[in-house]
Amino acid sequence: MEIEDLRTFVEVADTGGVSAAARRLGVSKSIVSRRLMRLEADLGVQLLARNTHGASLTEAGTTFRDYAARVCAEIDVARETVSPGGDLRGRLRVAMPLTFGPTHFAPVIAAMARRHPLLHVHASYGDRFVDLIAEGFDCAIRVGYLADSNLVARRVGPIYGSFVASPDYVRAQGSPETPEDLAVHQALMQGTETWQYMDGGEIRTFRPQGRFKADNGIALAAAAVAGLGIAWLPDCITYADVASGRLVRVMTRHPPPPAAAYVVRPPGPHASRKVRVLTELLIEHFERAPELWGLDDALRGSGS
Hints:
Blueprint: H1 3-15, H2 18-25, H3 29-43, E1 48-51, E2 54-57, H4 59-82, E3 90-96, H5 101-115, E4 119-125, E5 139-144, E6 152-159, E7 161-165, H6 167-173, H7 179-182, E8 187-189, E9 195-199, E10 202-206, E11 212-213, H8 217-225, E12 230-234, H9 235-244, E13 248-250, E14 259-265, H10 273-288, H11 297-302
Parallel strand pairs: 3-4, 3-5, 8-11, 8-12
Antiparallel strand pairs: 1-2, 5-14, 6-14, 7-12, 7-13, 9-10
Helix pairs in contact: 1-2, 1-3, 1-4, 2-3, 5-10
């Protein structure tokens, strides 16, 4: 039984079709089909039911998929264990936010690819939370406050944020000083989220209201500059607008609590070496360039 046949079966099972698996593996559909036929012949059972819409798992295929995925993962760990200092090989599929990814994380991904010429890097940028297991990602970089899940997370650095609005909005609507004041203001949101703020040493939550929503932080910053309301955004997005006076901080006595960036991966006892290397590079990146992730203490304390 060939390990590549097992990997191919897992990809087809997770993507739901030969074509999608072939694109993800970087091989032709005929190669994928040949590997599947060979695996089913070795096992003597049908793993997939093919149809015009793709391929679905049979009962045997559903059972075998989890075993095959574990075998592939263990083989990867074994290879990395016996050659820990060598070049990274294979493929790294990583998802990251569109808001931060191209400007803040892409240089780290590029540096990793440069150091390891045998590694194939597939980076996906988007502000939705991908399903790492179903979509076949090795890991994701996520920013903010993590919801409870079965994913394994490693914090790589802090990210600071502020409540901001345009000077025109503040002149017309006033500047909220307390969460109670904020309740009568227009909030610029990504969805129906709750906002967090500091009340002394305690973290409190507040559910804002507003008519403008966007799934991207840069778009929300543009809406704030346009005077549409108050936004809660990371300082690394609003720094230039605050420095130029296009935005000002509000509710500075009740700032948002610091958030963080994380590398998250599917559950399992061991992270692959390529995920560990990426995680360490990101930690170094945060430590080396803290100004990318928040304003300095003097400017933060001034509330300007």
